Structure formats: C-alpha cells, structure tokens
Amino acid sequence: MMMEKHKLIRLILKDLEELNEIANQLRQAEKLSRFELDIALSKSKLVFQEFEFLKELNGQDTEKETPKQEPIRTSPPPQPEARTEEVREKLAEMEAESKQQVQNNTSQNFRKNGLSQSSIINPKFR
C-alpha cells in the first residue's frame, strides 16, 4: 500500500510538471489554441483524479490506524422567552405617553395663538 502511494505521488508530480510546461507555453503564446487548452484541461483533470485516488488510499490507511469518532452532538440554541404581555404593557404605556404629549403640545399651541379648543370646535366661541 505504501509503495502505491509513493508511485502515485511521483506520477502526480510528473503530471504537474507537464501541466506547468503547458501553462508556460500558453502564457507565451500570442493566441491560445483550442487544442492546447484541451490538453491543459485534460491534464488537470487527470491530476485531479490522481489526487482523488491518493485521498482514497490515505482514507483506507487511516481507517485501519484510528477508530472512528462519534459525531459531536449539539443541542439546539435556547429559544427566547415569550414576553407578549410585557411587550403589550410597554406598548400601551408608550401609546398613552404619546397621546398625552400630543394633547400637551396642542394645548400649548392654542394658548400661544390665543385660541381655546372650544373655539376650534365651535366658531361661535371666538
């Protein structure tokens, strides 16, 4: 098994050198030919497949050497507490404050302009 790995690694290195030569030729070429690009692509696919095979070989060795570990189990994240009632109370408070503020501002504007609220509602009171 170890010998196969070494042979495969030597083969990968040889193919990578060839791929590097092809890439250098492509870099120097004024116009890229479809044929040269196809060769480069084929060579890179071959190197990819060789690495995949090396990965499989390595996986077989590690399975023999180390036992499989249990997957780590995680619990779901804690859910936020339902605070519906608290939110409703806060909303009602804010609403009451807002109404009071509008009422205060309106009264101030009436006094500032010498008007009363009843004169707006009933023009006879002006």
Q: Count helical runs.
A: 4
How does the overall form come out from the CA principal axes?
elongated
Structural category: mainly alpha
Terminal Cα span: 107 Å
Mean pLDDT, rounded to whole units?
A: 78
- Uncertain segments of ≥5 residues (pLDDT<50)? none
- Biggest pleated-sheet summary: none
Our estimate of the beta-strand percent is: under 5%
Oligomer: single chain
Q: What is the share of helical residues? A: over 70%
In total, how many beta strands?
Answer: 0
The run of helices and strands is: HHHH
> What is the CA-based Rg, rounded?
40 Å
How are the elements arranged and paired?
Layout lengths: L1 H27 L5 H32 L18 H29 L4 H5 L5
Helix pairs in contact: 1-2
Explained architecture:
There is one protein chain. This protein is mainly alpha-helical. The protein has a domain of 64 residues. 74% of the residues lie in helices and 0% in strands. The model has no long low-confidence stretch (mean pLDDT 78).
Which features characterize this protein?
single chain; 126 residues; mainly alpha; 74% helix; 0% strand; elongated
Care to give the gist of this entry?
This protein is mainly α.
